[in-house]
Structure formats: C-alpha cells, structure tokens
Amino acid sequence: INSKKECQVDLEFTTEHYNPEEGEERLGKCSAQVFFKNEKPRPTINVTCMRFMEKSKRQQEDYLLYKHMKQLKDPLDVISIPDSHGHIDPSLRPIWDLAFLGSSYVMWEKTTQFLHYYMAQLSSVKQWKTDEDAIDFDYTVLLHEFSTQEIIPCRIHLVWHPSKPLKVKYHCQGPQAPEEASGIEGSAAAPTMGLTNY
Description:
9 strands; repeat; Cystatin_sf
C-alpha cells in the first residue's frame, strides 16, 4: 500500500480489564483492521471480538456507576488524577475511567498514521447538576503524543447515561490550529468501536 496515500494495518490482540484489580486478566480475543487515508486523522476501524464481557454484566456495571454519580450530594470538582505520585484514589477511579472513555474518542479523532496519543493526566473535572437524567462533566486532560513527545491539553465536555450513547465535545490546543469536534460513543464499561459524528 502506498504509505503516502493509504495504509492498512491488520492486527490481533487480547482484551483485558482496564482496571486490573477487577481480576480475570484476559477477557477475549479480537481482530481489527485500521485504515489510514492520505495521512489524515481519524482512521477507519473495524473490530471483531470473541468472548467479550457479557452485555448484562456490562450494563449492570454502567448502572452502578451512574447510580453512584447521581447520589453524590455535591457535584464533583476534582483536580489532578493521578496525583503527583502517580496514585489514583479508588474513589476517583470511576471518574478516571469515564474521562478515559471520552478521551479515547478524542485520541481516535486525532490519530494519524504517524501520530498517536495516550491520556497522561486528568488535570481537572467538574460535574454539573442538571435536571436531565444524564451526567454532565467538563474536564481537562493532558494527552501525550508519542512521536513528537508533545503534551496537548484538551477541554472535553461529556454527557453520559448508561442506556444512551456517550456524547463528547472537545477543544484541543497544540502545535497546529486549535481543533473542535463532537461525537458519540457506546457503553462506559466496554465502548463500541463504531464511532460516528453527530
């Protein structure tokens, strides 16, 4: 394949719990095709997995997190996860996981054949109390871009309800012009890979 115009990567991998404390290291086997075109961001991804977490268990975990977040007396207002020692307080782990889920959409949107990202830090989180059923967060993450070693701050607005697709809007700063985008994603416990803009 002409690497200047298009590149396809075929891969196989095993899945595991994002939080290793949950036990059961290997959850399933997946194969994927990742297709980059004209060195542009947002590759096309086609993923097939076997022996994934049961849908009912995933929905139950999503609902427990949702219930916990809705029962907080005061909306969250947190800074720096992990802390300066790299530690994530267990009570803040669900917030990190939700932020990572929303950030994974941003990372996918920005990834090219030569640029890829990882969420290095959740530098601030603010939960908004709303009259609606969904949970609203504004948060800032620092994305680490591996090939340039740049740290890119992104402000992300996430709207989540366990029975609805995740909504993500973001604004990132970086060496290029600031970017803005929006989109939807799947369940919090196991995001779907068929991401689309709205």
